[in-house]
């Protein structure tokens, strides 16, 4: 690669955003930060701006923009502060940008991520909720614009690494029997079922292998994360839900596998650190140092596998059913889950209510076709409203 590549980091203050900036800072000759965006931790965003000197920063409202703009000027920076979703879409689609890291959490990331796709960028997709919500339309936009979609989710990045370059010909054409999606099983893999009613947000967020944002940590504990990832994999690799098998692998060393018709199974392994898939996607098809230490198999010692228990993890079943139903179902599943996770984090519902609430929302309305983005946002809004009603009358 010759010229310096310009990178927008959507969700720069989050766990993936910070890991991305860590990798970028190791390669100043290759990458330059074009824009950084943040939503809440704006003091941290300011520090990141001082470190990376982006052309733009994006914040949620005018008041915080004024505040940050003043502080950045005082620090001698020329960074211009933009506001809201419009600002996010602008820095995702700007002609000067080569790479967009889509690392906003949840449905809020859909429009800016799509803006990057429509502008034909190299899109590093961490924001799985965006793809889950809008699958068909998202993938059509990728095809139409010629954007390069590079998976950041460690499992999907692993699968991408285990597939041949021409995998878009179709899984059958390239001889894939199935995709094995690994899951750690989260902090409650072995918790007695009767105790799940009483687990706290702190316990749910204490993931055994990965350090992540709070929403995805709760999703990992309920295994909704794996459900969303199953849907994500269906879109990324043009697979049907029954071509994807979830395997619990508690060490999180194998990040996923591809099973070929000749009996070969290819896997990608590494220490559980998101800087590996981030560096892979940033440098692809080259390889660069990510700062992650070499995998020591002697320390790992053993690799275990088990079948997931859908009694324990009903969210897996709900996600599979939504994937099979298609249409508005995945967007409703995602929205209901976002409301449920937030309510659990605020201690308004129990951990086990998360699946109950999602199931009730999904059963409340028939699945509808989604032929345009409006229908996706309608499904999202409807599910949030139904979820709010469920919370109110419970
Ligand atoms: P996080 O909570 O640490 O960070 C989220 C980022 O999004 C922050 O920068 C926050 O300011 C921003 N944000 C939140 N709400 C916003 C809104 N309404 N508008 C604009 N910006 C908003 O989350 P994370 O763990 O970094 O995860 C980010 C995404 O990456 C999620 O979709 C997650 O599923 C995915 N992902 C994360 C990991 C991981 O290891 N953390 C792994 C795989 C995939
Ligand atoms: Mg993952």
Automatic annotation (TrEMBL):
Q: Does the keyword DNA-binding apply?
A: no
Which residues does Mn(2+) bind? 153, 155, 229
Task: Report domain DXP reductoisomerase C-terminal positions.
Answer: 269-385
The UniProt record gives the binding positions of 1-deoxy-D-xylulose 5-phosphate as 128, 154-155, 184, 207, 220, 225-226, 229
Question: What keywords were assigned to this record?
Answer: Isomerase, Isoprene biosynthesis, Magnesium, Manganese, Metal-binding, NADP, Oxidoreductase
Residues forming the 1-deoxy-D-xylulose 5-phosphate reductoisomerase C-terminal domain are: 149-237
Q: Which GO terms describe its molecular function?
A: 1-deoxy-D-xylulose-5-phosphate reductoisomerase activity; isomerase activity; manganese ion binding; NADPH binding
Q: Which domain of life is it from?
A: Bacteria
**Record pathway:** Isoprenoid biosynthesis; isopentenyl diphosphate biosynthesis via DXP pathway; isopentenyl diphosphate from 1-deoxy-D-xylulose 5-phosphate: step 1/6
Q: Which GO terms describe its biological process?
A: isopentenyl diphosphate biosynthetic process, methylerythritol 4-phosphate pathway involved in terpenoid biosynthetic process
**EC numbers for this chain:** 1.1.1.267
Q: Which cofactor does it need?
A: Co(2+); Mg(2+); Mn(2+)
Pfam families assigned: DXP_redisom_C, DXP_reductoisom, DXPR_C
Q: Please write the reaction equations for the catalytic activity of this protein.
A: 2-C-methyl-D-erythritol 4-phosphate + NADP(+) = 1-deoxy-D-xylulose 5-phosphate + NADPH + H(+)
Q: Which InterPro entries match?
A: DXP_reductoisomerase, DXP_reductoisomerase_C, DXP_reductoisomerase_N, DXPR_C, DXPR_C_sf, NAD(P)-bd_dom_sf
Q: Name the protein family.
A: Belongs to the DXR family.
What does the UniProt record say this protein does? Catalyzes the NADPH-dependent rearrangement and reduction of 1-deoxy-D-xylulose-5-phosphate (DXP) to 2-C-methyl-D-erythritol 4-phosphate (MEP).
Record's protein name: 1-deoxy-D-xylulose 5-phosphate reductoisomerase
Organism taxonomic ancestry: Bacteria, Pseudomonadati, Pseudomonadota, Gammaproteobacteria, Pseudomonadales
Q: Which gene encodes it?
A: dxr
